[in-house]
Amino acid sequence: MKTNSIILISNPCSEQFSTFEQTTAGGFSNLCEKEVIDFRHIPDKALLDYLQSKKENSCGILNHLDYILL
């Protein structure tokens, strides 16, 4: 049986991704001193695999908030 996953963003970042210094994975926020991963163009499975493999919080940009992953 296939399970759906939901990504909830309780405290979205107010910084503008377009102002970040570009990196191979997305951009770097000088304010937060963190890399922000660009998840907008990767398949749902790759996004889930990435998030499930991380032990710490991740910063990223997504196309949708409260998006149901199939």
How is this structure best described in words?
This protein is of the alpha+beta class and 70 residues long. The protein has a domain at 17-61. The chain has one helix spanning 44-53, and strands at 5-6, 21-22, 26-29, 34-38, 60-61, 68-69. The strands form two sheets. A four-stranded mixed β-sheet has the order 2-3-4-5, with no helix packed on it. A two-stranded antiparallel sheet has the order 1-6. The protein is elongated, with a radius of gyration of 13 Å.
Count of DSSP strands: 6
Terminus-to-terminus distance: 12 Å
- The stretches of 5 or more residues where confidence is low (pLDDT under 50) are none
- Strand order in space, largest sheet: 2-3-4-5
Q: Which structural class is indicated by helix and strand composition?
A: alpha+beta
The ordered string of helix (H) and strand (E) elements is EEEEHEE
**What portion of the residues fall into strands of 2 or more residues?**
15-25%
> In which range does the helix fraction lie?
10-25%
Name the average pLDDT. 84
Q: What is the element layout, followed by pairings?
A:
Layout lengths: L4 E2 L14 E2 L3 E4 L4 E5 L5 H10 L6 E2 L6 E2 L1
Parallel strand pairs: 4-5
Antiparallel strand pairs: 1-6, 2-3, 3-4
